[in-house]
Amino acid sequence: MMLRGFFSVEMCLKEHRDPRFSKFGGRVFGNPSDFSENVEKYENLRRAAGIAEGAGELADLLPFQANGDLLNMVALDKGCYIGQELTARTAHTGVIRRRIMPFECQGQVRQGADILDEKKNKVGKVISSDTSRCLGILQLSSFKLAKLTADDVALTARQPEWMPDKILANNKTRTSLTDA
Question: What does UniProt give as the signal peptide span (predicted)?
Fold first, then answer.
């Protein structure tokens, strides 16, 4: 897809602001080969911000586990889509015990590696990684644990800027945005 017309960069960013998180920037449309040197920078920025995307990272996850309620990916006022009933039920009555979280890591971790606590209990799984950051699906009750590892690499879970404190504060009760 090629961007045509006379647009300034500021105008493009304003018109194509990423709907998931306003500080994440804008979307630019064009020939992928024109942006190849920026792909790694984008992936690192995305991992640092705690934003997952694509089938490789989001497969087999429910919308709330993928932070869809926090990143403008779930609309509770629209209907008639596959999974609508489960999504609505989770939003209004459910407990969300696992979510995608960003981690700082002390080395490369393979995708699919189990995230373990200090007792070697599985508390999550890595879904994307580079040498200093990774994304993983994590049990929220394990978020504040000091010692997490994957592939014998130390991990430190981080709260994304866009995630409200209440999501991590009480993970034994309802943790969706519809909470009173």
Answer: none
